[in-house]
Amino acid sequence: MKNVLILFFIFSASIYDINAQVIHQNRHSLGVSLGMSHAFGMSYQYLGERTGIHTSLTPFVDLNDEYSFVAFSIGPMLHLLDSPQARYFLYESNGFVVNHYANKSDIVFMPAIGAGSKIWLNDNLTFDVALGIGILFGNEESGFPDYIMLPDVNLGFYYSF
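RE: above sequence
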């Protein structure tokens, strides 16, 4: 895992353009995320001078089959540094998935920590990559063991303003 993080930062740093004069200061981002601890679906990020927050939500309800599904994530971010093409951050995330059907509920919870980069594709579009380590907890109905340690991979595509 340590080697993957090192390769990730080398790749992100390789797109650094020394001659670029523009450092992106957009702090708010709306988009979609996909990942283990960041859940998946519609997402909002705020990454300020030192701290930030990430949240995502995917609700689904089928009234005919009495089935509902919710994926939700929230967690703090710590801004590390800026380059003209990327912003680097540390994150802690808390992802929840709840499936409710036929009077039973599967609940899965995954807290995780790691590092990431917000890579600028143009003035407002960014691609986020975050890598870390997390622990997946599930209840008896979920079919998971009490807990299991997993790598945490999260991707996102955002419009920043």
